[in-house]
Write a structure and sequence with these properties.
- The protein has four helices and seven strands; from the N terminus they run E-H-H-E-E-E-H-E-H-E-E.
- The longest helix has 15 residues.
């Protein structure tokens, strides 16, 4: 993939593209608990110009959203947040630590998210929003069968004001 950008749907453009080969990655999948939120916050703040606050993360976890991640070499390298809505999983956040971007962690985490949404949440589809400027995420989601179903005007904050969100969905097995 030649597009640049991190994995999270609203990430800044200009970071490295994702590596297509995830088989070489050694990681443990994990569920994120309140004890992990400090590590999540560190990644969040490093990855975004407009990060979720520690309070946003705590509230999301307390609301029952499914937080999961990937650990490698003893530390959290990526995490995702899924919000169940009836028979759908809304991917609220998929973030890879900046120093790990471009190595395939985003692909691996998306694969885990799709599996957890179907198996653990019983979802029949997944929905997400992504910035039009996040070319790497757009390529990733297209590669995994997501199709655009809408656009939310002025959804994300940006340094130049607001940026739209493209809305994508795909079915789950």
């Amino acid at each position: 993939m030649s597009a640049d950008g991190p994995v999270r749907p609203d990430a800044r453009p200009g970071d490295r593209a994702l590596a297509p080969d995830t088989q070489r990655l050694q990681a443990d999948e994990c569920l994120i608990t309140p004890d992990d939120l400090a590590s999540v916050s560190v990644i969040e703040e490093a990855a975004y110009e407009f990060p979720w606050t520690p309070g946003n993360l705590r509230d999301s976890l307390a609301a029952g959203h499914l937080f999961h991640g990937l650990r490698a070499e003893g530390g959290l390298v990526a995490y995702a947040i899924l919000m169940p809505v009836l028979d759908e999983a809304h991917l609220l956040n998929l973030t890879v630590a900046p120093q790990r971007q471009g190595q395939g962690w985003g692909r691996l985490l998306l694969e885990c998210s799709l599996r957890l949404a179907a198996v653990r949440l019983g979802a029949r589809s997944m929905l997400l929003e992504v910035r039009p400027s996040n070319l790497a995420a757009l390529g990733l989601y297209a590669a995994y069968g997501f199709r655009q179903i809408g656009r939310r005007s002025r959804y994300y904050p940006s340094l130049s004001g607001r940026e739209d969100a493209l809305v994508f969905r795909r079915g789950l097995p």
